[in-house]
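Need the bound structure for beta-D-ribofuranose, inputs here:
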Amino acid sequence: MTQSSPVFADVDTGVDDALALIYLLASPDADLVGIASTGGNVGVQQVCANNLGLLELCQATSVPVSKGADETLTGPLRTPSKVHGPRGLGYADVPASEAALTDYDSATAWVRAARAFPGELIGVATGPLTNLALALRAEPALPTLLRRLVIMGGSYDHIGNTTAVAEWNISVDPEAAAEVFAAWSDEGLGPQRLPILCGLDLTRNVAITPEVLARLAASAGSTSTIMSVDDKRGTLSTASNPVIRVIEDAMRFYLEGYYDNGHGYLAHLHDPLAAAVALDPELIATRSGRVDVELDGTLTRGMTVTDWRREPNARIGVGVDPAAFFERFIERVGPFARRLAP
Ligand code: BDR
Ligand code: CA
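Answer from helper R.:
Posting the output first, comments after.
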């Protein structure tokens, strides 16, 4: 039997966050012990609803969901991202959930989870880092309490997706990211404890296409019609499997957004790659470096400035085999979806 590790996810769900959560729930080596919600792709209230709805869909309603920051450390959130749609899940409707949020917030949830599994907990953050920064203020020992931290965020020696140089998650709350990186900068932590950063230069290599989605549906034993750029916008999935239906409806909106932004009819699975790396860091090649977040620049605020010569404070993802990632994704999520709706 596969040994499972406790995992805590901090998300701003979001189409790709949703796929990351489904991946974690589908993974026999992960025991998802909590979800922190943060405002980002959409407002925090909507992120909470999306998380609860996804757990309902995946029959995993015992996973506690916490509400977190609806503001950054320094003020209001930037305008929600357009690529995820007004409710964050594209065209998808997730089932309504009766489940309640925890009576403690997301920062407290981080601290409780880390203390409950000292030295064991794997943290994965795929949204702005506000909750984690607040958790560090409450429990400065988090870097030693966690077994591993994987962050989707930043862009290393590469362009941005929110400004010319800044990536979305860092750009939403640069001060939070700076506090998190500073907390992990202690030289005494050792290389294995350095956070693993999955930036755009890495995650832009994993582009999902209609062909990959069709393989996923087949592996779930679901009917499905292969999506095409020529389909009427907003065409809803007719897949027989409910999990595949939600994935396809969410992904269609994401594919359309990417297409409109000039990328082609594909989309980058930033957050699912980070989730997969959280469970298996061997999926990517990393290089240790020093990352500082620009807080002041009028053009460069939120940029992750990378210095490969200084004492490292992170392991930066620099190489991935997209085919291996998609194979892993399909072999986990397909049978999981099939099990939920035999
Ligand atoms: C990140 O920004 C969000 O829109 C995605 O969910 C991902 O976490 C990519 O820059
Ligand atoms: Ca995200």
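Comments: The chain has one domain: 5-207+264-340. The mean pLDDT is 96.
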